[in-house]
Amino acid sequence: MNLGVIDNAQLNGGQKLAVKYFTVALVLFLAQMLFGLLAAIQFLAPDFLYGMLDFSVNRMVHINAMVVWMLYGFIGAVYWLLEDESGVDIAGLGLGNIAFWVLTAAVAVVVLVYLFVQIGPGDDMTRWFINEGREYIEAPRWADIGIVAVMLVFFYNVAGTFSKGRWSGIAGVLTLDLFALAGLYLAGMFYMTNITADQYWWWWVIHLWVEATWEVLVGCIMAWSLMQLLGVRRKIVQTWLYIEVGLLFGSGILGLGHHYFWIGTPDYWFSIGGFFSALEPIPLVAMVVHSVYDAGVHKFRSTNHPALAWVIAHTFGNFFGAGVWGFMHTLPQINLYTHGTQWTASHGHLAFFGAYATINIAFFYLAIQKWRGNVWMGEALPDNGWKWKWSLALLNIGVLGMTVALLIAGYEQSFVERAVGGSTWEGYFAAQAHPWFQQAMFWRLVGGVVTLIGAVLLIWDLLTIGSEETRSAPLLREAAGR
Amino acid sequence: MNPTQPRWSSEDFWKKVAIWMTAGSFVILILLTFDTLSKTSVGGKRVQAYGVINKDIDYRFDPKRNRYVPVVGGEAPLFGKALTEAEAENLVTLGKKTIQAKNCMNCHTLLGNGAYYAPDLTKSWLDPAWINESNRENLMLAFLQHPEQNARTFGTGRKMPDLGITETEARGVVAFLKWMSAIDTNGFPHNFKTIKHQGD
Q: Which residues of chain A have pLDDT under 50?
C-alpha cells in the first residue's frame, strides 16, 4: 500500500477501467455546466453569441453532456464494484478497455460536430452524420450504432464476470437492468414522420431510462455502497433492493403514461399515466428511509464521510427532485397548464442532480479513496475537510436555487401564457417578457454560477483529498467480522 | 430462512414480488402499446391522413367532450394546389426531416416537448400571429427562409437565427405544421383562440 499517492497498483482490473470512466465523466460534468450557463445567459441577453453558438446548440450540448456523464459515472461505478461483488477477475477486460476508447472518441467527435457543424439540410444524411434533432437523443445514427456496440461489450463484461463468479442478488438485478437499459435504446433508433408515434417511442427511451432502469441501476449501486461504506448486512440491502425494484418498476413502467397525455395518444393514458406516475415517489421514500435508517443504525461510522454524505444527499435529492417535483405536475388536471413550461426544467434540474449526479459524486469519492491506497477519509481530516463540505453545500444550494427560480418562472408561464394567454405566440412572449419571468431567470443564472463554483471546488477536492493522509482506513466489514 | 421470520420480511418473498410486478407492468405496457399504435396510425381519427393539408383546419371547443378539438373543414389546398395522399406524405416527410435536421426542438416545443426558449409549434399553423389566413402561407415561407428580417420578437429580443432553410424545405415545414395542427391532442393547448377566432 502506498498511502496518499495516486497509484493504479492499488486498484483491481475493473477499477483501473472505472477511473478512466470517472475522469471523462468529470470533464463532461464541467462541460454540462459551462454550456448550461451560456444558455442561461441567453435567456437574459438573447444577442449573446447569437448566430455563433445559438441557444439550440448550447442547450443540446448541455443536456447531452449530462446524459453522457451520468452514463459514464454509472458504467464506471459498475466496473468499480464488479470484481468485488463477483469475487473473480473481470471477463474480457481488454475488450472493455477498447470499448472505453471507442466510446470516448465517438463522444468527442459527436460534440465537435454539434459545435462546429451544428445543423444540416433536411435529408437523411443529416440524421446519420450530424444531428438527429430529437431532444436528449440527438446523437447521429452512426453514433447510436457505436453506442449499442459498446453497450454490448459492457454487458458482456458484467454478465460474463458474474457467470464465472458469484451470482448475488445485486448481480442478478444489475444484469437484467443493464439488458433492459441497452435494449430500450433501440426504441429511439428509427425515423418516423408520424410525430405521435415518433414521440411515443422516444419516450420509451427517455422515460424508461430515467424513471425506471436508471433508478434501478442506482439502487444496485447504492446497495453495494451501503455495504461498503457502513458495513450493512447483505441480506438487508438485498431485501430492500427487491422492494425498490418491485415498487420502481411497478410504478415507473406504466408511469410512462404521464408523457402520453397530449401527444395524440388515446384518453386512457390520463388515468393510467396519472395513477401510476403518482405512485412513483413511493419507492423514493423507501430509499430515504433505508439509507437514513442504515446510517443511523451504524451510527454514521464510516471511513469515507464525503461518500456517505453524497449517498444521503442522493436519497433526499432523488425523493425531492424526482418524487416531489415530479408529482407536482404529473396529474393531467395540472399538466394541461404546466406541460411545455419551465416547470419541467425545474423538475429536470433537481431530479437529474438529486437522483444521479449525487450518487456518481459519491462514487468518485470512493474511487479516490482506494486509488490513494485506501486512505482514511472519515472524521478529523487534516483541514477539517472544508473543501468537500463547501462543495457539497454549494452544489446543493446552487441546484436548489436554480430549481426554485425555474419553478417560479414555470408558475408565471402557466398563468400568463397558458391560462390567460391561451398558449398563443403572443401569450408565450407575454410570459417570457414579464418581469417575474426575467427575475426568475436572473436568479437561475445566479444559482448556476454557485453550482459551477461548487463543481470546481469538488474537482479540486477530488484531486487533493487524502494526499497528505498517513492513516489507513480500517476495513469496517472485516472489523465487524462480516 | 430464519423459521421465526415472517414471510413478508424475507428476501425471497420480495424477490418474487419484484419479478411479478415488473413482468406484469411490462406485459400491460406491451398490450397498451399495440392498442395505442393502432389508434394513432396516420389516417385514423386521432392522427389525420397527410392529405388533410388540402383541407381547412380549425381548433374549437367541443362542449360534448369538454375540451378543444381540431376541426377539419372544406377544401383549402396548401399553396393553392391540391396534392394526392402520396404527394402530401412526401411533403410532410420533408418537413419533419427538416425540423429534425435544423434541431428545432432545442428551442421550440412540438406537442409541448422540447426546449422552452421559443414558442410551441403544436398549433402554430393556427396561431393568430399570422394575422390573416389569406397571407399566412407567404408569411410562413418568408419567415422560415429569412427569420432575422422577418423577426417578431414581441418585445423580448429573441430572434430565430438563419438556419439555411431552402424554399423547398420551408414548404415541407409549413406542410408538416399544418398536418400536425390537425392531430387530436386531447385538448392541449387549452383555451387557444385560432387565427379564425381572434374577435370571439
A: 476-477, 480-482
- Which residues of chain B are within 8 Å of residue A256 when distances are taken between CB atoms? 29
Nearest chain A residue to B128 by CA distance is A424
Of the two residues A413 and B156, the one the predictor is more confident about is A413
Residues of B with Cβ-Cβ distance to A268 under 8 angstroms: 32
Instruction: Tell me the chain A residues in contact with residue B185 when contact means C-beta distances shorter than 8 Å.
Output: 262-264
Residue pair A318/A347 in contact (Cβ under 8 Å)? The answer is no
Distance CA A10, CA A276 (A): 46
Q: Tell me the ipTM for this assembly.
A: 0.96
What pLDDT is recorded for position A411? Answer: 97
Show contacts of B136-143: CB within 8 Å, 24+ apart: B136/B195, B137/B78, B137/B79, B137/B174, B140/B170, B140/B174, B140/B177, B141/B167, B141/B170, B141/B171, B141/B174
Whether pTM exceeds 0.90: yes
What whole-number distance in Å separates Cα of residue A398 and Cα of residue A167? 41
Residue B13, min C-alpha distance to chain A (Å): 9
**For the segment A62-73, what is each residue's pLDDT rounded down to a tens digit?**
999 999 999 999
| Chain B contact for A55 (CB, 8 A cutoff) | yes
**A398 in Cβ contact with A450 (< 8 Å):** yes
B112:A340 CB<8 A: yes
- Best residue in A128, A134, A243, A265 for a mutation probing chain B (most B CBs within 10 Å): A265
Crossing angle of helices A169-185 and A234-255, in 10° steps, is: 20
Cell of residue A173, nine digits: 438485478
- The reported pLDDT for the residue numbered A380 is 81
**In chain A, positions 111-140, which contact chain B (CB-CB < 8 Å)?**
118-124, 126-127, 130-135, 138
Say how many residues make up chain B.
200
Element (H, E) at B57: strand B55-62
* Amino acid B3: pLDDT: 63
Q: What is the average pLDDT score of chain B?
A: 94
- Candidates 1.10.760, 2.60.40, 3.10.450, 1.10.10; correct CATH number of B50-181? 1.10.760
Residues of B in contact with A242 (CB under 8 A): 11, 14-15, 17-18
* Domain range summary for chain B, segments of one domain joined by +: 7-40, 50-181
Q: Look at residue A482 in the predicted model and tell me its pLDDT.
A: 40
Beta strand residue intervals within B78-136, DSSP E: 109-110, 113-114
